[in-house]
TrEMBL record:
Entry keyword annotation includes Transit peptide: yes
PANTHER family: TRANSFERASE CAF17, MITOCHONDRIAL-RELATED
Species per Swiss-Prot/TrEMBL record: Roseimaritima multifibrata
Biological process annotations from GO: iron-sulfur cluster assembly
InterPro entries xrefs: TrmE/GcvT-like, YgfZ/GCV_T_CS, YgfZ/GcvT
Name the UniProt record assigns to this protein: Putative global regulator
Record flagged with keyword Transit peptide: yes
SUPFAM superfamilies named in the record: Folate-binding domain (SSF103025)
UniProt keyword list: Transit peptide
């Protein structure tokens, strides 16, 4: 299945010093990246709070960032703030849309037909493909789980839709996108997480955080939390015994004690699934709470 992506944060960070500046602001170790590879990462501020979340890919002139919509202004300002005389130039890419995110069986078919090679986790891959004379940049993006490919054609007359039809890769809608995103436990910045969270609270440590790279902005807080092992809340996937979506911000209670909060939800096959925060007492699968009139269970 493919999904037409009309809204996202796409930022280029160019210049010979781009890797130095970005590595000082990100939880992942960007200095280990070769051209054609990327990594999921958080951009943090001095207290370790998350200012942005997405995937950074290295290319021959710098880096390209992909993330949920609405992150560009803060990201650009943050990079500018910590760039003095370095050759580092961030800019929002405004003419990219649309892109096409291929997921599931469709992504497997694309991998086979185009000879795509995924990165060795936690690395992500970026390759180009010549589709009958039209160059398509292909980025490995985990928004809907592992194995997804974001196709970014360089030519408006790209022929991608015809290719998808030939391969019987159907188009999915916004509801199906949410089903897959929530099933993949991928938090959407600005919806599930924001600048009040620490990176570990998104529960994507293996994908996003290097605990050996050395100093970066907010590293002391992130390292201390890792050393103490005392994350007090994190994103988990909930199943709620109702066939109605749950409003974001709905509290989850154990008796009278608040033990979590729903951030996004979707109805799928007669059940409601959600992402939301859980307190430490409810990290484990099978933990239960009340969500309004309904029972909620951590998956």
């Amino acid at each position: 299945m493919f999904f037409k992506i009309n809204e996202a944060t796409v930022v280029d960070v160019l210049g010979v010093d781009a890797v130095t500046i970005l590595n000082n602001l990100c939880t992942a170790n960007l200095k280990l990246l070769d051209v054609g590879h990327g990594v999921e990462t958080f951009v943090t501020e001095v207290r370790g709070r998350t200012l942005a979340h997405g995937c950074l890919f290295k290319n021959s002139t710098g880096f390209r960032f992909f993330g949920s919509p609405g992150q560009a202004e803060v990201l650009l300002g943050h990079i500018d703030r910590y760039t003095i005389r370095e050759d580092c130039h961030p800019a929002e890419v405004e003419s990219w849309a649309p892109g096409y995110l291929v997921s599931g069986d469709g992504a497997a078919r694309l991998t086979k037909e185009w000879g795509l090679v995924a990165g060795e986790p936690p690395l992500l891959a970026n390759q180009s493909y010549d589709l009958q004379g039209h160059v398509v940049q292909v980025y490995e993006i985990p928004w809907l789980g592992s194995g997804g490919w974001l196709c970014m054609p360089e030519d408006p007359q790209h022929g991608l839709l015809e290719f998808f039809a030939q391969q019987s890769i159907a188009e999915g809608d916004a509801v199906e996108f949410e089903k897959r995103r929530i099933a993949a436990r991928f938090p959407w910045y600005g919806v599930d997480i924001d600048d009040s969270q620490l990176p570990q609270e998104a529960d994507r440590n293996e994908q996003t955080i290097s605990f050996t790279k050395g100093c970066y902005l907010g590293q002391e807080t992130v390292a201390r939390l890792d050393a103490l092992g005392q994350v007090q809340k994190k994103i988990v996937r909930w199943q709620i015994d109702t066939t109605e979506p749950i409003a974001p911000g709905t509290d989850l209670l154990d008796g009278e004690k608040k033990v979590g909060k729903i951030t996004s939800s979707v109805v799928d096959q007669g059940k409601t699934f959600a992402l939301g925060f859980a307190r430490r007492s409810h990290f484990d699968p099978g933990s239960q709470a009340r969500c309004g009139d309904y029972e909620a269970t951590v998956l």
